[in-house]
Amino acid sequence: MIEVKIPALGESISSGILAKWHVKDGDVVKRGQPLFELETDKITSEGQAEANGRVALKVAAGAEVAIGQVVAVIDETAAASAPAPVSTAPAAAAPVAAVPAARAQLETQNSKLETLSPAARRVAKETKVDPATVPGTGKGGRVTKGDLLAAASAPAPAPSTPVPGTPSRENAPLPVPAAPAQSTSAPAGTRTTRTKMSPLRKRIAERLVSAQHTAAILTTFNEVDMSAVMNLRKTYQEDFTARHGIKLGFMSFFVKAVVQALQTVPAVNAQIEGDELIQNHYFDIGVAVGTERGLLVPVVRDCDQLSFAGIEKAIAEQAKKAREGKIKIEDLQGGVFTISNGGIYGSMLSTPILNPPQSGILGLHNIKERAVVVNGQIVARPMMYLALSYDHRVVDGKEAVTFLGHVKQAVEDPARLLFAL
């Protein structure tokens, strides 16, 4: 027997919630197959099978588990598969085509249920919506939290009138098995629904409040003309993608600009630890990623040594791991500065909150064509507002404004990034 234990995820993590089983008790599993999803106060990760065999579950989904706790066992001696029982009952009269159709529908239903994220699963539980009945708009047809909320708010279809001579549900040939019908609305008279916060959401809340109470947060603003960067991307995008296998995005320009600004204004690359001021001499930049489980900030290491392609690949890899729940605790630690792009959600202006113990965070926003004056002429330009929140205990106002000015100059004139000006 192989014991399936909750793995160690970091010194500060002692327990978590076994949010979801990807397998059922008695299933035959293969080495490396995902078994469960674990939510902690910092990350959500997957546990995998360490051997081939038949799995026996020891803990129910939703239970709190400790690091090192045995949650299942795998019997390596079990048969690879068991033959399906042969029914001696007479087969029901049914069109031949109905059998594969039923099987296909069942497989689709099971696939949707298995790929639900913890956030989507909670919404399904709260709204009583059956995920198998909801068309998925996520990647690969995955049912998302938004899909379930939309289904919950949709009016229930009116009952159809049976056509004379049509078999009823009770005597219809070979009905397709499905999950029991559930109400798509809250119980009558219910105005609120109360659920327990996930460990990750609780941790996010604690860190945000701590940042507000501990640091002297101030925000300074500027705006940047994105014309030069957009023209560069348009000119070289095809060649860049063909050579590096990834698209040239905006984020690599801002990461490069932030690194140069940190080198020019080192005060922003410092942090307070107790009664000491620590000056960092490396450039590990956190890039905020929105996931269904909350906002995560994976860190791209040594950005001063990476090319544009290297930065884009690192960001894409970390974002993929974060959204798939495969991010590791070490991927989130050690950043000296954070960039958060609220513009992808349509935000025009915001005041980002510091990611402790860092002393600065840059907020990017939506790009909109606005009328600006260039050489005495009013022209339309793609403009973006920038917001730099900083810890005023470490960074003075002059330094913050100078830092943001360097970011603006580098983005508006990308040649500065090439020549380190």
Secondary structure topology:
Elements: E1 2-5, E2 15-21, E3 28-29, E4 34-39, E5 44-48, E6 53-57, E7 64-66, E8 70-75, H1 98-114, H2 118-127, H3 145-153, H4 199-214, E9 217-225, H5 227-244, H6 251-264, E10 270-273, E11 276-279, E12 285-287, E13 289-291, E14 294-296, E15 299-300, H7 308-323, E16 337-341, E17 360-364, E18 368-374, E19 377-391, H8 397-412, H9 415-419
Parallel strand pairs: 12-16, 16-17
Antiparallel strand pairs: 1-8, 2-4, 2-7, 3-6, 4-5, 6-8, 9-19, 10-11, 12-15, 13-14, 17-19, 18-19
Helix pairs in contact: 2-3, 6-7, 6-8
Describe the structure.
This protein has 421 residues and is of the alpha+beta class. The chain contains nine helices and 19 strands. The protein has helices at residues 98-114, 118-127, 145-153, 199-214, 227-244, 251-264, 308-323, 397-412, 415-419; strands at 2-5, 15-21, 28-29, 34-39, 44-48, 53-57, 64-66, 70-75, 217-225, 270-273, 276-279, 285-287, 289-291, 294-296, 299-300, 337-341, 360-364, 368-374, 377-391.
- Sketch the topology as an H/E string, one letter per element: EEEEEEEEHHHHEHHEEEEEEHEEEEHH
Specify the structural class.
alpha+beta
From the N-terminal CA to the C-terminal CA, the straight-line distance is 62 Å
Uncertain residue segments: 82-99, 157-184
Task: Produce a short descriptive summary.
Helices cover 29% and strands 23% of the residues. With 421 residues, the chain is of the alpha+beta class. Strands 9, 12, 15, 16, 17, 18 and 19 form a seven-stranded mixed β-sheet that branches. The chain has a four-stranded antiparallel β-sheet with strand order 1-8-6-3, with no helix packed on it. Strands 5-4-2-7 form a four-stranded antiparallel β-sheet, with no helix packed on it.
